[in-house]
Design brief:
Elements (H helix, E strand, L loop, with lengths): L3 E4 L9 H10 L5 E6 L11 H10 L4 E6 L7 H6 L4 E5 L6 H10 L3 E6 L17 E5 L14 H14 L5 E5 L4 H10 L3 E4 L1 H4 L4 H9 L2
Parallel strand pairs: 1-8, 2-3, 3-4, 4-5, 5-6, 6-7, 7-8
This protein binds ribulose-5-phosphate and cobalt (II) ion.
C-alpha cells in the first residue's frame, strides 16, 4: 500500500485558507489533517468547528480530525455534523476510552486514538481491536514546527507487534516533525500514514512536496 499523506492545515496561510485547501484537493494528498486544540489539553488554541465546517464544504478528500481537547465526547456529534470522516482522540484525554470509540463509530466515523510521545503503546492492548487508526505523536502536541522525537521508530515496531499479536488491522499514522528524511525512516519502520504541516506549507512548492512525500 502507498503511504497515505495528510497535510496539516495548522501550517496553512489562514488569510488564504481556501487557496491552500484547493491546493491539497489538487495534490496527491489523501486526507486533510485538522488540528483542534483547546488550550487545556495542550498549551495552545487553534481553530474550531466553524472552520472545519467551511473546509468540509470545499474539501474533496476525507477530513482527518485530530482532537487535542479534554473530554472529547462532548463534541463528537458536532464534529460529525461539521464534516469529519475520521475522528482521533487522545488516550490521555479520555476517562472512558472504549465508550468514546463506540460513540465515534455510532456517528458513522472512523475512530483513531492518539498517544503522546511518553505514553507507551502497551496501553492500547485492550482497545486495539476496536479502533481504525493509531496516531503516534512524534512531537509533544500543541504546536507545529517542532523537532521529531527519535523514539517514535521503536514505538512503531512495538505497535506493529501488538497489532500482529491481536490479529487485527489498523492504520499507523505519525504526526509531528515529518519531512523527507524522517518520513523515509518512518515508512521503513512500518508507518502507513504521515501528517506533515510545516514541511509542506513552508516549502517553495507544496504540491511537489506532497508528491515527494507520497513517493516514500
Ligand atoms: O498535531 C499537531 C501538533 O500538535 C500537528 O498535526 C503537527 O505538529 C504537524 O505539524 P508539523 O508537521 O509542523 O510538525
Ligand atoms: Co495533528
Amino acid at each position: 500500500m502507498q503511504t497515505l499523506i495528510s497535510p496539516s492545515l495548522l501550517a496553512a496561510d489562514f488569510m488564504n485558507l481556501k487557496a491552500d485547501v484547493e491546493m491539497v484537493n489538487k495534490s496527491e494528498a489523501d486526507w486533510f489533517h485538522l488540528d483542534i486544540m483547546d488550550g487545556v489539553f495542550v498549551p495552545n488554541i487553534s481553530y474550531g468547528l466553524p472552520v472545519v465546517e467551511q473546509i468540509s464544504k470545499i474539501a474533496t478528500k476525507p477530513l482527518d480530525v485530530h482532537l487535542m481537547i479534554v473530554d472529547p465526547d462532548r463534541y463528537i456529534e458536532a464534529f460529525k455534523k461539521a464534516g469529519s470522516d475520521l475522528l482521533t482522540v487522545h488516550y490521555e484525554a479520555c476517562t472512558h476510552l472504549h465508550r468514546t470509540v463506540q460513540n465515534i463509530h455510532s456517528h458513522g466515523m472512523k475512530a483513531g486514538v492518539s498517544l503522546n510521545p511518553h505514553t507507551p503503546v502497551s496501553v492500547l492492548e485492550d482497545i486495539i481491536q476496536d479502533i481504525d487508526l493509531v496516531l503516534l505523536m512524534s512531537v509533544n502536541p500543541g504546536f507545529g514546527g517542532q523537532s521529531f522525537i527519535e523514539n517514535t521508530y521503536s514505538k512503531i515496531e512495538k505497535l506493529k507487534a501488538l497489532v500482529a499479536e491481536k490479529k487485527t488491522e489498523l492504520i499507523i499514522e505519525i504526526d509531528g516533525g515529518v519531512n523527507l528524511e524522517t518520513g523515509k525512516k518512518l515508512v521503513e519502520a512500518g508507518a502507513d500514514a504521515l501528517v506533515a504541516g510545516s514541511f509542506v506549507f513552508n516549502s517553495e512548492n507544496p504540491t511537489q512536496t506532497i508528491a515527494d512525500l507520497k513517493q516514500l
